[in-house]
Design goal:
Strand content: 15-25%
Strand order of the largest sheet: 4-1-7-6
CATH class of the largest domain: Alpha Beta
Number of strands: 21
CATH architecture of the largest domain: 3-Layer(aba) Sandwich
Mean pLDDT: 89
Bound molecules: iron/sulfur cluster
Number of domains: 3
CATH superfamily of the largest domain: Carbon monoxide dehydrogenase alpha subunit. Chain D, domain 4
Low-confidence stretches: 411-442, 462-468
Number of helices: 13
Structural class: alpha+beta
Shape: globular
CATH topology of the largest domain: Ribonuclease HI, Chain A
Distance between the termini: 38 Å
Largest sheet: 4 strands, mixed
Length: about 475
């Protein structure tokens, strides 16, 4: 007897990674069209919760218009004798995994960036109420994390109710993030790793240190520690950091060893504080990307919520495609906003002296962590919308990058990324550990090189499909 026999669609790992395109979706929850959306887990005292209670505040799935986008919040309260507040972040991150187990339910991102879709097919099969989603979440949480003794799930689709909860959630996220600030990577013997995103990027391993927050921005070093203690066989695990072989780039013998094992040999070395050489891999749910701008030899930063194109004319989605997939790509670096606040942020590349552009909203969020003399030297979309405007701005503000131009002609700076000793470059069309999913199989190409004079990608017409 299946544990999900009262759910109208199937539930299982095989549905993880399922993409739902706009034309196939019944409804979209949150996402870029909604400014306020969230998912939040809070630990509560045992006597304060009504176990397995599911509440829907606002229109339920069957009441929303087909093809629409609605405001959305998921609020989960958990209780248990061994539960501590430090586990909230990790329990919250599991919403992503568990929702993706549901046939025809796509969950992307985390915290205030959530973006979900439910397919028409699954809606027609009967997935027409959030109650079913709540039931699945409750069953999975209680089975996978047995230290959760009681759980309540609330879905919010009424904008009037989502907004105030979102305000609260933002404060809670900030308090969680602030906790590890001030701690140094040198102060601890153990880092933590996470492979939760391997269903999307099979070679990706997050290395979470006090000064390098996870890419998704939802798991801190404290969260990692709490999770590895209560669920040692889970996706979050301890990494004894071992010998520090390069303090500038952030290379640790223990990190290399564990990442090699957890990426099944696809990634052998990781330099934690640089975007070149052996950078930390990026899955697909990073909060933002640091991207190299060869024309000025500096870095731009862009976050998921930025709707315009960046200073190099590319939108977040294109830059994210170049970054994602569990690869080590020179100059494209998946990051959390909290990592931008870290003194180790791109330390080996010059840190803030190398950052030249970022959206005004992100700058506002991290401005207290930018060295005072650099705050006005980093352009936003308000000062520079093109590379030419950026160059003029940097020169006018005497950004330290300008000195680098004198030392190295700007035409040559694009080559900087290639100045590395025998480092395997991952560039199109060379593939390393890139998964190919087709016909129900997942093929991982390890250290493969595919060369083609021309690549043509075209849709298969209906008649052609019939012939096959
Ligand atoms: S981004 Fe990293 S820390 Fe966050 S869920 Fe994915 S693998 Fe884990």
């Amino acid at each position: 007897m299946s544990m999900f026999e009262d759910i109208p669609v199937e539930v299982g790992v095989i549905y993880e990674g399922e993409r739902i395109r706009r034309k196939d979706m019944y409804v979209e929850l949150g996402g870029p069209k909604q400014e306020t959306k969230f998912e939040l887990v809070r630990v509560k005292p045992l006597d304060k919760l009504e176990d397995e209670k599911i509440t829907v505040i606002g229109p339920d799935l069957k009441d929303v218009q087909e093809g629409s986008n609605i405001p959305f919040g998921v609020y989960i309260e958990v209780a248990g004798q061994d539960l501590e507040e430090e586990l909230e972040g990790v329990i919250e991150r599991r919403i992503h995994e568990y929702c993706n187990f549901i046939e025809g339910f796509m969950h992307l991102n985390q915290r205030y960036d959530i973006w979900m879709r439910i397919s028409k097919k699954s809606f027609q099969k009967g997935l027409n109420s959030f109650n079913y989603v709540g039931k699945v979440l409750i069953k999975l949480y209680k089975t996978e994390l047995p230290f959760i003794q009681k759980i309540q799930v609330t879905f919010l689709t009424d904008q009037q109710k989502v907004r105030p909860m979102w305000d609260q959630a933002m404060k809670i996220y900030e308090a969680r993030d602030a906790k590890a600030r001030g701690m140094k990577d040198e102060d601890v013997d153990t880092f933590y790793g996470c492979t939760l995103c391997q269903s999307f990027a099979p070679t990706h391993v997050c290395v979470i240190t006090p000064q390098r927050y996870s890419n998704c921005g939802s798991i801190s070093w404290f969260d990692g520690r709490a999770s590895a203690q209560v669920d040692p066989k889970g996706p979050v695990f301890a990494i004894p950091k071992g010998e520090l072989t390069d303090p500038e780039k952030g290379e640790y013998a223990g990190v290399n060893e564990v990442v090699k094992k957890k990426s099944l040999g696809a990634v052998n070395r990781v330099w934690l504080y640089t975007s070149f050489g052996y950078p930390h891999t990026s899955c697909g749910c990073f909060e933002g990307t640091a991207f190299y701008i060869p024309e000025v030899d500096g870095f731009g930063i862009v976050h998921r919520g930025f709707k315009d194109v960046t200073v190099n004319g590319l939108p977040f989605s294109t830059l994210a495609d170049s970054t994602a997939g569990g690869r080590q790509v020179d100059g494209f670096h998946g990051i959390s906003i909290e990592y931008v606040r870290s003194p180790k942020f791109l330390q080996a590349d010059g840190g803030w002296n190398r950052v030249v552009w970022m959206p005004a909203s992100v700058k506002e969020r991290v401005k207290d962590f930018i060295p005072k003399d650099m705050v006005d030297k980093v352009a936003t979309e308000n000062e520079a919308k093109s590379i030419e405007e950026l160059r003029n701005f940097l020169e006018a503000k005497k950004h330290p990058i300008v000195e680098r131009w004198k030392a190295k002609p700007v035409e040559a700076v694009a080559e900087v990324a290639e100045e590395k000793e025998a480092i395997p470059t991952v560039a199109v069309p060379e593939l390393a550990g890139v998964p190919i999913t087709a016909g129900g199989f997942k093929i991982i190409l390890k250290d493969a090189k595919i060369r083609a004079r021309k690549v043509i990608i075209r849709a298969i017409k209906a008649e052609e499909k019939k012939k096959r």
